[in-house]
């Protein structure tokens, strides 16, 4: 149905576990050549080995998106290994909770540095390579939390995720004549290592709040990202796609029937 993306060079930040590893698996399964980043090298090497064993072309490079030099090094790795860069998935993110009355400046800075500034630093670093590609794609992992919904304790996180959307809309205009599109996916609650850390009670209450009565899978997010990466999605830019099993729709528990 869609033109194959086999052979495209893809960089996934935060690709060592969770949604990012799922994105890498999805692109690798379509024959793309993938570089994943993350700070923990042990985790990164294991993730790359897993995905390679599954038949993909996937390698790891150490990277911290809050550091512009590290972002440049990640892009250089993708170019060196795969001859360029066609798709950038800005997925690395953290979600520590802190009630507003307790939140320190350091905690706020960390969330904004990784989630918001990290997205901007990565896109800046990748821009020359994406322009050379002629069909560059940027796919940002935002969230329903912030852009659409709120959650006690996640003010900084919500602000960072909503900020990503403000960023993509203006970036889309800057890129519109260079063949680069930039779009965002807004996941609901997706089963990942990071979400597991929220504990079983959180996971149960989330399942109850989702009309489809299940958490999303990383493959659900990868499918949306693969669509944005296709040639057929070339005319879609500056847009958002909610992937949440219907979670944002009901106005109350009763509304779910
Ligand atoms: P996760 O399981 O905790 O994985 C996070 C990934 O990001 C890891 O690879 C981690 O590796 C990496 N990372 C964290 N800080 C980084 C940094 N400074 N530089 C580079 N890599 C970094 O999280 P997840 O649940 O998959 O979430 C991934 C993205 O989806 C995040 O942006 C999150 O906000 C978003 N999201 C998740 C959900 C959900 O339900 N899971 C819902 C909505 C949105 P290291 O720690 O080794 O660096």
Structure write-up:
Helix content is 45%, strand content 14%. The protein has 257 residues and is an alpha/beta fold. It is globular and about 50 Å long. NADP nicotinamide-adenine-dinucleotide phosphate binds next to helix 1, strand 2, helix 4 and helix 6.
Note the overall shape. globular
What proportion strand?
A: 5-15%
Which spans of ≥5 residues are poorly predicted at pLDDT below 50? Answer: none
Averaged pLDDT: 97
Task: Present the secondary structure layout.
Blueprint: E1 9-12, H1 18-29, E2 33-38, H2 41-53, E3 57-62, H3 68-82, E4 87-90, H4 105-133, E5 137-141, H5 155-175, E6 181-187, H6 193-196, H7 200-209, H8 218-229, E7 240-243
Parallel strand pairs: 1-2, 1-4, 2-3, 4-5, 5-6, 6-7
Helix pairs in contact: 1-8, 3-4, 4-5
NADP nicotinamide-adenine-dinucleotide phosphate (NAP) binds next to helix 1, strand 2, helix 4 and helix 6.
Any key phrases for this structure?
single chain, 257 residues, alpha/beta, seven-stranded parallel beta sheet, 8 helices, binds NADP nicotinamide-adenine-dinucleotide phosphate
Summarize it.
This protein has 257 residues and is of the alpha/beta class.
């Amino acid at each position: 149905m869609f033109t194959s993306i086999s052979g495209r060079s893809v960089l996934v930040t935060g690709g060592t576990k969770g949604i990012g590893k799922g994105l890498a698996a999805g692109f690798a399964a379509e024959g793309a050549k993938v570089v994943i980043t993350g700070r923990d090298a042990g985790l990164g090497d294991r993730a790359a080995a897993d995905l390679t064993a599954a038949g993909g072309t996937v390698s790891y490079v150490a990277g911290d998106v809050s550091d512009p030099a590290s972002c440049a090094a990640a892009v250089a790795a993708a170019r060196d290994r795969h001859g360029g860069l066609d798709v950038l998935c800005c997925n690395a993110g953290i979600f520590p909770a802190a009630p507003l009355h307790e939140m320190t400046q350091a905690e706020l800075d960390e969330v904004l540095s990784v989630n918001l500034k990290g997205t901007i630093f990565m896109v800046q670093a990748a821009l020359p390579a994406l322009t050379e590609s002629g069909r560059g794609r940027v796919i940002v992992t935002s969230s329903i939390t912030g852009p659409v919904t709120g959650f006690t304790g996640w003010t900084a996180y919500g602000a960072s995720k909503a900020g990503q959307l403000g960023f993509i809309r203006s970036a889309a205009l800057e890129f519109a004549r260079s063949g680069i599109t930039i779009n965002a996916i807004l996941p609901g609650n997706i089963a990942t290592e990071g979400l597991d850390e929220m504990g079983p009670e959180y996971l149960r209450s989330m399942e109850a709040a989702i009309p489809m009565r299940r958490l999303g899978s990383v493959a659900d997010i990868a499918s949306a990202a693969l669509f944005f990466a296709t040639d057929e999605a070339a005319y879609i830019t500056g847009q958002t796609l909610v992937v949440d099993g219907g979670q944002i729709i009901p106005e109350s528990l009763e509304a779910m029937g």
